[in-house]
Amino acid sequence: MSPKSDIAALYAQHQDILQQRTAEALQRGGFEHLVVPSGTLHYQVFDDRDYPYAVNPQFKAWVPLTRNPGSWLVATPGQRPKMIYLQPFDYWHAVPEAPNGYWTEHFDIVVIRTPEEAQQHLPRDPARCAILGEPQGTLGAFAPNNPPAVIAYLEYQRAYKTAYEVAMMREASRIGARAHRAAERAFRAGASEFGIHLVYCQAALQDANDLPYNNIVALNEHGAVLHYTDRDRLPPKDSRSFLIDAGASFHGYACDITRTYARDAAGEFQALVDAVDGAQQAMCAQVRAGFDYRQLHLDAHLALARILNDFRLINVSAEVAVETGVSGAFFPHGIGHGIGLQVHDVAGFAQSDRGGTIPKPPGHPYLRLTRTLEAGMAVTIEPGLYFIDMLLEELKDKGLGPSVNWERVAAFKPFGGIRIEDDVVCTDGDPLNLTREQFAALG
Ligand code: GLY
Ligand code: MN
Ligand code: MN
């Protein structure tokens, strides 16, 4: 990572941008203050056991604090923002340390000892506040009102990452790439899915609740389950293939990385992985300002259908496979999504910062991003090919059975599936692939 002074300078610039965005958002909503609670703990029903705390993303957009329930941010245009920082007296739990780090000099900080104390430091009139948070975050008269005009503006603009945010995502990617390497080694050593997951967490120095999403660690046929999170405790007799979709967090920012490996470097599954990898890199090169992400998704179908055809998995041309929906049975998810503070970042369909929706292409219900790419946007590019019984059977039901080479499908089925996923930042020039950059740095 850059030296501390660089991060401090990047953060200062990030803060300026947040202030500008906040002023505009408040003006649009007719409010004077932005008030953002960090969030509260949630409890399991009929139990005193809490769920893992998840910070309000609108809060961590301002500060690298992800473990501070009960704190509040107040931003008023023309004034230094205020951080109402809860540091309870509590001998049952570890309490947050005193505020420290590069963000503190930009805030007026008030340390409180109980959640209720926050109220006396909030603006006088709640009616003048845009309060962004969860319903249970109500404190006295301060009930989150989540004004749509304010949220639409902030979330739309959040797609354009500041240089600080790209630096945070680069660091998350560095951690993720390192952990992926460790996981690959564990796979090659014959570890179980559960064992590989533990190796991953150890290498990332992140517990499951620190990770930006639930790790997908899938051996063999499990690679065909898109969100497989079961993790067998014992290794299979024969580990043929390994699909790992696992991320890492840094100061509230996510990376989202998928790799697929074959045990047999000379086998056909490895060749299929290589083909998807090559196509994926060509897709990443399309992450350019002005390019419609929907088109990227549609082009991906054609590219993947060409691979299906090259590997004789289908009996029809790539074009016919796309037109008839055969490609969709092998690639049944979107090409990717925005990423940043949330692994599936917000406002993927937003038409403008005043609202509106850009529709998904007909027949592609799982695409999560329909915006045109612009400099600063960070997206994932994650094509895949899977051998999913349910979807292949549906093709038969639709009379499309003859389009598929079932013998070849049967040969590949024991390997489950393939996904390759990178996080790519759109710039004014060449795309910045944070994932490849960090794998390359590992040598
Ligand atoms: N790991 C979740 C996703 O790739 O979208
Ligand atoms: Mn993803
Ligand atoms: Mn992923």
Automatic annotation (TrEMBL):
Enzyme class: hydrolase
Entries under Pfam families matching the protein: PepQ_N, Peptidase_M24
Catalytic activities: Xaa-L-Pro dipeptide + H2O = an L-alpha-amino acid + L-proline
Keyword Protease: yes
InterPro entries per UniProt: Creatin/AminoP/Spt16_N (IPR029149), Creatinase/aminopeptidase-like (IPR036005), PepQ_N (IPR048819), Pept_M24 (IPR000994), Peptidase_M24B_aminopep-P_CS (IPR001131), X-Pro_dipept-like (IPR052433), X_Pro_dipept (IPR022846)
Domain Xaa-Pro dipeptidase N-terminal: 10-156
Annotated binding of Mn(2+) 2, by residue: 245, 256, 421
Source taxon at top rank: Bacteria
All residue ranges annotated as the Peptidase M24 domain in the record: 168-428
Keywords, in A-Z order: Dipeptidase, Hydrolase, Manganese, Metal-binding, Metalloprotease, Protease
EC number(s) reported in the record: 3.4.13.9
Amino-acid positions noted as binding Mn(2+) 1 in the UniProt annotation, renumbered to this chain: 256, 337, 382, 421
UniProt remark on cofactor binding: Binds 2 manganese ions per subunit.
Cofactor names: Mn(2+)
GO molecular function: proline dipeptidase activity
Keyword Manganese part of the UniProt annotation: yes
Function in brief: Splits dipeptides with a prolyl residue in the C-terminal position.
Family: Belongs to the peptidase M24B family. Bacterial-type prolidase subfamily.
HAMAP family per record: X_Pro_dipeptid
PANTHER family: XAA-PRO AMINOPEPTIDASE 3, XAA-PRO DIPEPTIDASE
Name of the protein this chain belongs to: Xaa-Pro dipeptidase
Organism phylogeny: Bacteria, Pseudomonadati, Pseudomonadota, Gammaproteobacteria, Lysobacterales
